[in-house]
Specification:
Largest sheet: 5 strands, mixed
Length: 399
């Protein structure tokens, strides 16, 4: 049974050793708590004093690792000490065992011990006074309160402060963890936003450069080569300007919103004109109700512009011969756009694709609580690739 008890702490060993040596010092000097002829002394003499003293020192070894067992044994030891001439150090160590039982014991014991010792203190005053009717009888309850209730109450106060400090520490750790999670999410969202911007701004120009440079290398026609080089130069200059704008955003560190030169729906005509100069046959049909585009929020305008831009880039890389249709409709709290292009039969040179464009378009629509679908569809003119997006222009989900 004793081998099953946990190993005592070093500080507890020092307390037990100090208590034992102090008690032995008082015992060696012949200083007892009571005279040998007092009525309560059942075992007079000096040697019986050492038994409760040694037991109480052993309880001090278990004050932190086994506080309940230490309190039970210490209570028996202090009663035995009352039947001898007594040792003051035994009583002092008993107060420490009570204090430790409240501070280190289970929560139920921490609440129960102060209540029990408080009741004992009150009973120690009331019962003797009722029996003897002398004021000195009240001192019994005072002694019980000093020896038992006071250390128990002190232990409860210290434990409450310790628990409050631990709760505050855990709350601070949770706050720090949530702050770190928010920071990581913010950094991730900002990286995703900059990745979308970089892809949408540059991919269109680089795709045109790749296609026309391939055509210039594969065709031995000076006129075609000169025309392709003109398109390449135009897209190189435009792409470089877009890159400089993005670098300016990163250097300014202004991640709160889009830059002042954010593309809007008014720039769709120029975007379509650029696509036509790259060789696409594009038709633009825009129908905006009311004061739109003034009534369309800037983030929705940017998302619509980028979705059309990426759709035209994909059409330039993958669409077959035929016309590409771009249709925008605004009204009833939402902006809807559709871009359709012929499927298959692409005879010219192709530019490689990574699929990041579709991912970016879906992310833009999702961030605005909108929807986006992209895939092959049947139409009267044959198989087409259609990109359909619905972006809400008012607060709340679109109808």
């Amino acid at each position: 049974m004793l081998s099953a008890l946990p190993r005592p702490r070093r500080f507890d060993v020092l307390i037990a050793l100090a208590g034992l040596l102090g008690g032995l010092l008082l015992w060696g000097l012949g200083l007892g708590s009571r005279a040998a002829d007092e009525p309560v002394v059942v075992w007079p003499g000096r040697w019986p004093i050492l038994v409760p003293l040694a037991v109480m020192a052993g309880c001090e070894l278990l004050r932190r690792t086994a506080p309940r067992q230490a309190l039970l044994v210490a209570t028996v030891a202090v009663f035995v000490d009352l039947l001898t001439q007594g040792n003051l150090v035994t009583v002092v160590m008993f107060t420490d065992v009570i204090y430790a039982s409240v501070l280190y014991g289970p929560p139920a014991a921490a609440r129960r011990v102060p209540r029990v010792t408080g009741i004992m203190s009150v009973a120690g005053m009331v019962v003797p006074y009722a029996m003897w009717r002398v004021p000195e009888a009240l001192l019994i309850g005072v002694a019980v309160g000093v020896v038992a209730f006071a250390p128990a109450a002190t232990g409860l106060i210290v434990r409450n402060h310790r628990d409050a400090a631990e709760a505050a520490r855990l709350a601070a750790e949770r706050t720090a963890l949530l702050a770190e999670m928010d920071r990581v999410q913010a950094v991730t969202a900002e990286r995703a936003r900059m990745a979308r911007e970089l892809h949408d701004m540059v991919a269109n120009h680089l795709s045109a450069i790749a296609i026309h440079s391939t055509a210039a290398l594969s065709l031995d026609e000076p006129a075609t080569t000169r025309q392709a080089l003109g398109v390449i130069r135009e897209n190189s200059v435009a792409g470089l300007a877009e890159m400089r704008r993005l670098i300016g955003i990163l250097r300014d560190g202004s991640g709160d919103g889009e830059p002042a030169a954010t593309p809007t729906l008014d720039g769709l005509d120029a975007l379509v004109a650029s696509a036509r100069s790259n060789g696409l046959d594009v038709s633009l049909d825009v129908s905006l109700d009311g004061d739109a585009p003034a009534g369309v929020p800037a983030p929705v305008e940017l998302a619509a512009y980028r979705i059309v831009q990426e759709s035209l880039t994909n059409a330039l890389k993958h669409a077959g011969p035929g016309r590409v249709f771009v249709v925008l409709r605004a009204g009833e709290g939402a902006l809807s756009l559709t871009v359709t292009s012929p499927c298959g039969g692409h005879d010219g040179p192709r530019a490689p694709g990574s699929g990041a464009g579709l991912v970016g378009m879906r992310e833009r629509a999702t961030l605005l609580r909108g929807t986006l679908r992209a895939g092959a569809e049947d139409s009267p003119d044959g198989k087409v690739w259609a990109v359909r997006a619905t972006l809400p222009t008012v607060e709340g989900d679109p109808a």
